[in-house]
Design brief:
Elements lengths: L3 E4 L7 E5 L10 H7 L4 E5 L3 E3 L2 E3 L3 E3 L2 E2 L1 H22 L7 E5 L1 H10 L8 E5 L17 E7 L7 H13 L3 E7 L6 H14 L1
Parallel strand pairs: 2-3, 2-8, 8-9, 9-10, 10-11
Antiparallel strand pairs: 1-3, 4-5, 6-7
Helix pairs in contact: 2-3
């Protein structure tokens, strides 16, 4: 169903769930996870939707226009896959850290908003979620690091601010970090590492 890569880390270290951006694969974010914590376990998953040959996690109608039914279905499928792998590799869904870039960040948001989701920790780089969220799911235990672009050519600033509002309105503990564009670079990687050290 999904192509993935799992690497076992040292005991009592977190497990990173790595979710790449459009056109990426399960290798893309491995160096990022290693920079954040070289001892951690890693489950890196390749999106199984192709858009002009580029791997994604869900379909879209256009840039910024999501295929909502597909997003909902794919989010549930991916979450179920991660649940299965958590049992197989014996890691905690509550303690896992979901690290997503762009399209990967967006599917991570969807999974966090699922009923009975156990996702509590997320590092979301260049996220976008241009849809209304019913405030029926509280996230009081969630800790979220959001890295967004002041002048992101793909995600307008108002959409970045919408993501911040979604999490704050649901009671999550939110840490914001702003960069220039649609990027995962040394600055927001270091900020993410500092955030990780604070929450663990």
């Amino acid at each position: 169903m999904y192509k993935y890569r799992y690497e076992k880390g040292q005991t009592k270290t977190p497990t990173f769930i790595l979710l790449h951006g459009t056109g990426g694969n399960e290798e893309d974010l491995l160096p990022v996870a290693a920079a954040l914590n070289a001892n951690a376990s890693v489950l890196s998953i390749r999106g199984n939707v192709l858009e002009h040959g580029n791997a994604r996690y869900f379909k879209r109608l256009d840039t910024g226009a999501y295929d909502i039914p597909d997003l909902m279905t794919r989010g549930q499928e991916l979450y179920a896959f991660i649940e299965e792998k958590a049992q197989e590799y014996d890691f905690s869904l509550e303690e896992a850290i979901y690290l997503g870039f762009s399209n990967g960040a967006n599917i991570a948001i969807n999974m966090m908003l699922l009923d009975d989701s156990l996702i509590n920790k997320a590092m979301l780089y260049a996220p976008m979620y241009p849809m209304d969220v019913e405030e029926t799911t509280d996230l009081p235990n969630a800790k979220v690091f959001l890295s967004m672009g002041e002048n992101d050519p793909i995600v307008p600033k108002r959409e970045s601010e919408r993501v911040v509002s979604i999490f704050k309105d649901l009671g999550a503990e939110v840490t914001e970090f702003w960069v220039e564009g649609h990027e995962l670079n040394g600055d927001n990687l270091l900020a993410g590492k500092e955030w990780l050290e604070k929450i663990q």
